[in-house]
Design brief:
single chain; 221 residues; alpha+beta; six-stranded antiparallel sheet; 6 strands; disordered C terminus
C-alpha cells in the first residue's frame, strides 16, 4: 500500500456530484473516479492509522438497502472505522464539505446505557467532566427531560441525559485535503480522545452481542 498523500480535488467534487445525482447511471459513468480519487486514498489513510489504532475498516461505497429499500444506492461520503478493546468506535468520514472524526459510542444499547448511568452517578462519573473538557460532545441523541426513574437534581444531569457518548471534530474541506495533513488531523483527534475511550472501555464496555435470527424451517416462521 502506498503512503497516504491526500485526496485529490476530484474526491470532494465526486462526493458532491454523487449526492446530487445518486443513480446507477451516474455511477456507471463515474465510478472509476471514486476508485481513484476517493477509495484509494481512504485505504492508504486506513493502512497508516492501523499501525497505531488497529485495523481500520473502510466503508463500502454501496449502501445496504435490505432494510431501507428507499435509501439512495450509494454513499455520499467515505470513511473508516476502528474499535478500541472495549468496543468504542474511532471513525473518520470525508464528505464533500468536511473531514469529521467521532470517537465513542453513537448510541448505547440497553446494557451499555445502564452501566453508563451507574458510572456517571458513582465515583467514576466525577472524573468524566474533566476528561471531556476541550472536546465537542455529540448531543444528537439526548433526552430532553429526565432519565426514567430519575427525579432529583444532579451536577452531571447533562451527562445522564445522553443516550450515547462520543466526541467529535470537524474541519472544512479545502486544499489541505490534497496533502498528508489529514492523516495527522485524524491521529491527533483520536489520540486526544484516548482518555475518554479508556473511561468508556472500563465503565461501559462493548455492546451486547446480537443473536442471529433463526432461519425458517419447512416454510414456517
Amino acid at each position: 500500500m502506498s503512503p497516504f498523500t491526500g485526496w485529490p480535488s476530484d474526491a470532494t467534487a465526486f462526493l458532491a456530484e454523487i449526492e446530487a445525482d445518486n443513480t446507477r447511471e451516474f455511477w456507471a459513468e463515474n465510478g472509476h473516479r471514486h476508485a481513484t480519487a476517493v477509495l484509494e486514498p481512504m485505504r492508504a489513510l486506513a493502512a497508516e492509522l492501523a499501525d497505531e489504532f488497529g485495523p481500520v475498516r473502510v466503508l463500502r461505497s454501496h449502501r445496504n438497502r435490505r432494510f431501507r429499500p428507499a435509501a439512495p444506492p450509494y454513499r455520499t461520503d467515505t470513511g473508516g472505522v476502528a474499535r478500541s478493546p472495549g468496543g468504542a468506535v474511532l471513525s473518520v468520514v470525508l464528505s464533500a464539505t468536511a473531514l469529521t472524526t467521532a470517537v465513542g459510542h453513537w448510541a448505547f444499547d440497553t446494557g451499555q446505557l445502564r452501566r453508563y448511568r451507574a458510572a456517571v452517578l458513582g465515583a467514576p462519573g466525577e472524573e468524566l467532566p474533566a476528561l471531556l473538557a476541550g472536546h465537542v460532545v455529540d448531543r444528537a441523541r439526548c433526552l430532553r427531560g429526565l432519565p426514567r426513574g430519575f427525579t432529583g437534581q444532579h451536577p452531571r444531569l447533562d451527562l445522564l441525559r445522553l443516550l450515547g457518548l462520543q466526541v467529535v471534530t470537524s474541519r472544512q474541506a479545502g486544499a489541505w485535503l490534497s496533502t498528508a495533513e489529514p492523516l495527522e488531523v485524524v491521529r491527533t483527534a483520536w489520540r486526544a480522545a484516548a482518555p475518554v475511550v479508556a473511561w468508556l472501555d472500563r465503565h461501559v464496555g462493548p455492546a451486547d452481542p446480537v443473536e442471529p435470527r433463526p432461519r425458517p424451517v419447512d416454510g414456517y416462521m
